[in-house]
Amino acid sequence: MKAKIVFQTTNGNNRAIAERFRKNLVVLGHDVSMHNVYDVLPEELVGADLYVFTAPTHMQRAPRRIRSFLKKLAKSGWEVRYALVATRLPGSKGDHEPRTLDMMASSFTGPGHVRMGGLFIDSKTMKGPLESGWEAKVDAFLADILSRL
Ligand SMILES: Cc1cc2nc3c(=O)[nH]c(=O)nc-3n(C[C@H](O)[C@H](O)[C@H](O)COP(=O)(O)O)c2cc1C
Fold first, then answer.
1. Is the minimum distance from the CB of 68 to ligand 1 under 6 angstroms?
2. What is d(CA 6, CA 147) in angstroms, rounded to the nearest whole number?
């Protein structure tokens, strides 16, 4: 299977999440590429069996860059089976954040767009680190998706 992972990050947390997906998929023998959203164009990512997008919550929203990237990708007309991950602050500060995943998914309204799952990972402070046990959360999330592909 061919997988493409795109992350946005300010302090490295979403890069670490993307890297976790990448390593797990490589170990399983998949063909994986991983991209910083600032270094790649949607049209360069044609032809994946699975896309993974991971981004932080910023100002109670999905960041503009990843949203505009996803919007362009969705307009490409390709089949896009995708999994979404977003980081957020824990507890009441992060309670508004179901929105981050919904915003990331909002462009994918076409018949070939299949949302395989969405995952939140808490960040202990604005800069991280990520919640304890986040790696196991990623592993379980990915295993579930792969079982349904
Ligand atoms: C400028 C900025 C704004 C943020 N705004 C929010 C927010 O509104 N809600 C929230 O839950 N987390 C917020 N966070 C926390 C980030 O989602 C969290 O720290 C994330 O892990 C950062 O990931 P990164 O290192 O990949 O950028 C914010 C972080 C930054 C740096």
1. no
2. 21
